[in-house]
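hey can u check if this looks right to u? its 174 residues, i copy pasted from the old doc so theres a chance i mangled smth
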Amino acid sequence: LEFRRVLFRSFFLYGGEFYQSSPETFELWSYDAIYGNWTVVNPDSTQADIERSSYGAGTVAEDIAKGFWYGGWLSNATIPAWGAPSFALSNFLEYDMVQNSWTNNSGPDSTGRAEGVMEYIPASDGGMLVYFGGLQDQYGNGSSLVPQPMNVSFAERTLLPRTDLCSKSSYTTS
């Protein structure tokens, strides 16, 4: 449980946009709440293919020391020398805070999503992630955005996806 002592006093910063300046290459930052200082987390080789996105859905599973990020926008405010129109990602990132390693997975489908909410629920063998709300990028190029459907009751607002972290299975509810 040594990781809990260190990690529970730390905040990790992933994602976001640069305002009125050019974006820098992605670095993961950590803030130590005890000592009040920011530091760049020494990257391992799994970070090489990770890019910064903005307005994705992020959450932390403290009991397993992992952070998760789904979707978000790639744009000239997030990626250095971006030269293309903004679009929403369908990727699902997992950051292991103990191993300092990244996993870049595909999402439950190829539809880009942004501006939704994701929560971790400590249920099942390994916990569940629930995503809802936000926008869908229908054609993957930012040209046609529609709201993420929410045609379920408030208690089951889990249209996309419910992901069981042990089985790596995604579920939808309608």
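The helical segments are 2-7.
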